[in-house]
Design goal:
This protein is an alpha/beta fold. Helices cover about 40% and strands about 15% of the residues.
């Protein structure tokens, strides 16, 4: 779609007006162009069709006959529209539109076909093989279908698919609940349910005679007494070659399925009336439009009592899955298809190579990644086969006769899943996807694929992927791709089995208890990449590219001599479903260092938005274009220009000494002894959000004073009691000095205070300059540095960019640390004259804050805040700070980080200074 065209929110009223206006139109030649111009202008907000990339009577040469044809409406990268006079055959028009689609070069084919005869609309999503048909008078209720076509982002389509599949999943959930309430649970019930899903889907998608499963169930007794026997007999028939069956009647109409779906003997279920009703309700649903990608994940939740109310929340959108599949292997295959388009020899070579591909998802869940990847490969082979037939003519020997000789098949797919239920779902989801792709092929070529018996199937192992050798599952070579979405479990959340797995995978590495569970998959993938030259890409929690984890992980990964071949920097991974709690993720693709690849990274300015693609020279462990630096924990600054950062003092006193309110402070001021030790106190909350807080700082108090003051005795006694009753030995030991904070780290001079946690959305991390008389708690980080120039440097865009890249995270907020963030900040030598200038800009920032002292730091530095004086003060400060590294105000964040990494390398290697 043209960038000048904004995505509209399509109006139902405008659609109603349009339908009324055109309800009597009939003649294609006379009216179709005016019809669509009116549609684009008043419904889609397109004032200039040329600017939007819309052309009427677009020329296209037929790839079969070579004749010149004309597409009624071609909307570049959006849709092909084929329009007919009222009452004409829409099926014929669809075949015509599909012919135009195939005749366009691969890079110019939109995913949507729209067929209309004024009175009817048919919208076809070619990619998903989905068709929606409705009448002109029903346009207002269907207008949202055009919104996602125009936007190219599919929000309404996804919502609609999720809604449809949620309804289907609820029907299956109701069936499961009835089974469960009658004592049917566990593995055999899981097998039963996935078989029922397969049968319902087959009933509605031409696997056999339409609705014969439904009719078979309707013919059972209302009390359900014969349902179990009927279904068991059906399962047996489907698993028995026709020549060996002893059945007759309705069961004789069913094919021999094979493929392992019906091979396992399971217990016959004793149905009752309510169970039968739930089964019939599910059978009455139209299963033909179910998307296995969505449905597999939703169906899994049927088994979770805790999550039945949250159907849809764990669906992994195809859009997100494509972020892995395209750069991992599909981009290069599509590029080859385009380059080979006019060469029979090259097309045949590509076709042969498609059959060599092996895809392994070692944490496959319900098989979503494999489903989407398989669909893409089948679509690519279909385009290739049709093009070969076009080039070779009707005498082609490629076999589009029902046997096809397809190179791409389920046997190329491999999955490992630790849980039984999702592994069952994955097998069936892949069978359903294969069937959908065969229907698509039949629709395009006119040749029907032999559906049964199933001769090829995906290999899905119900095993722990961390306890088996992956290369025993399938052949590994340069055509093998490892992909998926391993478990998102933080190091502190591991169960005993996971902890043991992690120790083994990490070979008892002393730091293995710090990294996330997903790192195990990266280490194993690296082993196979190094050994076989395969490629891999995983979704992972963003924490593995931040804080301490990159150093730990890549210290091990580097032993396998691998590189990041592509990456998506931190973004929010969600499913578009309402109520979904998005997770901050990264995608990391890995390959051998010796492999020459065009390195690409998608950077997200808005983590909820669309990533910006950049071609880069190198992608390091922090998913930045820069040298392969690894930043480890440091107890002192790498830069001689900086002083050591410490945590503030830790009270561990239940607030008796450290959280004194204003009214309590007023009371203490009446005590002549206690008032001498009353100090202002500040933690992260007070630094950011203001508020009066006080502490009793008794470091230099005399024993006689502690005994003489009633207020001090009362508070110290409360602290002693709390510490004595603590479960922690260190806290109990501190009961002997109950008048003191358990850890004392108060600077003797004025100091810089930095919050240990700060919102990621602030463009500047709010930092304060604090007098020595104010007590800082351990919720703050302190630097005993009175130089305003240091404050200026830390209160800059440069330090904020560094912190956002290097720091760990607490949920979605920055976790700023002394050891990782600050002590590794690569600050070069600064001249005295520049420090003097920085002193001035720092004072300017503090002066503006003082003028606005009624506003808190959190308010002053809130995202989007536009206080002109403060903005101006920071612009002047940033200009000076940037100059330290030879940077300019208009340099990008990427350029700034690259320069910081370069300086880090210099400081790390003194010989380079």
């Amino acid at each position: 779609m043209s960038p000048e065209l904004k995505t509209p929110t399509l109006s139902k009223q405008a659609a109603k007006n349009f339908a009324n206006k055109w309800r009597t139109a009939e003649n294609e030649i006379r009216d179709y162009q005016s019809f669509w111009e009116d549609f684009f202008r008043h419904l889609c907000g397109v004032d200039d069709t040329k600017v939007a990339g819309i052309e009427f009577q677009f020329p296209v040469k037929s790839s079969t006959s070579g004749n010149q044809n004309w597409i009624d409406v071609y909307w570049k990268n959006v849709a092909i529209i084929e329009h007919k006079s009222k009452g004409e055959d829409l099926d014929k028009a669809e075949l015509q539109a599909r012919g135009y689609l195939r005749s366009l070069a691969p890079g110019y084919r939109p995913r949507t076909l729209i067929i209309s005869d004024f009175a009817n609309f048919r919208i076809i999503d070619v990619k998903l093989n989905r068709t929606h048909e409705f009448k002109l008078e029903d346009l207002p209720e269907n207008i949202h279908r055009f919104e996602h076509i125009i936007s190219g982002s599919k929000p309404h389509a996804l919502e609609e698919e999720i809604t449809v599949d949620q309804e289907a999943a609820k029907l299956m959930a109701n069936l499961y609940l009835e089974l469960e309430s009658n004592g049917y649970e566990g593995h055999e019930t899981s097998v039963f349910l996935v078989r029922i899903l397969f049968l319902f889907f087959g009933d509605d998608t031409k696997m056999w005679e339409h609705n014969i499963v439904k009719q078979l169930l309707l013919n059972t007794k209302e009390d359900g007494s014969d349902v179990g026997k009927t279904i068991s007999e059906l399962f047996t028939a489907l698993n028995t070659p026709i020549k060996d069956r002893e059945t007759s009647g309705e069961l004789s109409k069913f094919p021999y399925v094979n493929g392992g779906i019906f091979s396992e003997d399971i217990q016959e279920i004793d149905f009752n009336k309510k169970m039968r009703v739930a089964l019939i309700n599910a059978a009455n649903y139209d299963w033909s439009t179910i998307n296995p990608t969505i449905f597999g994940a939703l169906f899994q939740l049927i088994k979770s009592k805790e999550e039945r109310a949250a159907l849809g929340e764990h669906y992994t959108s195809e859009e997100n899955i494509n972020k892995i599949i395209y750069p991992l292997f599909l981009d290069s295959l599509q590029e080859r298809l385009t380059d080979s388009w006019d060469s029979k020899k090259l097309l045949k070579e590509l076709r042969k190579d498609l059959g060599k591909i092996r895809l392994l998802d070692p944490a496959c869940g319900c098989g979503n990644f494999l489903v989407v990847a398989y669909r893409h490969l089948r679509q690519l082979e279909l385009e290739l086969l049709v093009r070969l037939q076009e080039l070779e003519g009707k005498e082609s020997d490629i076999g589009l006769d029902g046997t096809f000789g397809l190179q791409v098949g389920l046997q190329q797919l491999y999955g490992i899943e630790i849980l039984d239920w999702p592994s069952q779902v994955a097998r069936v989801a892949l069978f359903l996807t294969d069937h959908q792709e065969n229907l698509k092929l039949e629709k395009v070529t006119g040749s029907a694929h032999a559906k049964f018996p199933i001769l090829k199937a995906a290999t899905i192992l119900n095993k722990n992927a961390l306890e088996i050798e992956w290369d025993t599952l399938c052949d590994f070579n340069s055509d093998t791709y490892i992909l998926g979405n391993p478990p998102f479990v933080g190091s502190l959340m591991l169960n005993p089995e996971q902890k043991l797995n992690q120790k083994v995978i990490w070979n008892n590495h002393p730091k293995s208890g710090i990294v996330d569970f997903v790192t195990n998959w990266f280490l194993l993938a690296a082993k196979y990449i190094s050994k076989y030259g395969c490629n891999s890409a995983f979704v992972a929690t963003s924490s593995i590219a931040q804080g301490e984890q990159p150093f730990i992980l890549w210290s091990e990964l580097n032993k396998f001599d691998i590189q990041v071949s592509f990456a998506h920097s931190r973004f929010l991974w969600s499913n578009e479903a309402s109520g979904m709690a998005a997770v901050a993720c990264v995608i990391i693709g890995l390959s051998r260092k010796s492999e020459s690849v065009s390195k690409r990274i998608w950077q997200y300015e808005d983590e909820k938005g669309i990533g910006e693609l950049m071609e880069v020279k190198n992608i390091n462990a922090y998913l930045i274009d820069g040298p392969d630096v690894l930043i480890s924990s440091r107890s002192t600054p790498i830069s001689p220009e900086l002083k050591v950062m410490y945590f503030g003092s830790m009270p561990r006193d239940n607030g008796h000494l450290s959280k004194i309110t204003q009214s309590e402070a007023d009371e203490i001021m009446n005590d002549p002894i206690a008032k001498e030790y009353l100090r202002k106190c500040i933690g992260a909350d007070e630094l950011l959000n203001g508020g009066d807080r006080f502490a009793l700082w008794l470091l230099h108090a005399k024993a006689s004073e502690l005994a003489s003051s009633k207020i001090l005795k009362t508070r110290i006694s409360a602290v002693r009691k709390m510490r004595s009753e603590s479960k922690a030995a260190s806290t109990r030991r501190a009961a002997s000095t109950s008048h003191l904070f358990v850890q004392i780290a108060q600077p003797d001079s004025n100091f810089i205070a930095v919050p240990s946690v700060s919102s990621q959305y602030r463009s500047i991390i709010p930092i304060a300059y604090i007098p020595s008389t104010t007590i800082a708690t351990n919720a703050l980080l302190t630097i005993a540095d009175e130089r305003l120039s240091t404050f200026a440097i830390l209160q800059s865009r440069v330090f904020t960019i560094w912190a956002k890249t290097i720091s760990g995270r607490l949920k979605n907020d920055l976790r700023i640390s002394a050891e990782i963030t600050y002590h590794n900040f690569p600050l070069p030598r600064i001249s005295n004259s520049l420090r003097a200038e920085l002193d001035a800009t720092a004072k300017n920032i503090l002066d503006v804050r003082e003028l606005n002292r009624d506003s808190t730091l959190s308010q002053l530095y809130k995202q989007g805040n536009s206080l002109p004086q403060l903005q101006k003060a920071h612009i002047e400060n940033d200009k000076l700070v940037l100059s330290i590294w030879g940077l300019k105000p208009n340099d990008s964040d990427k350029t700034i980080m690259s320069k910081l990494f370069e300086q880090f390398e210099v400081l790390k290697s003194p010989t380079l200074l």
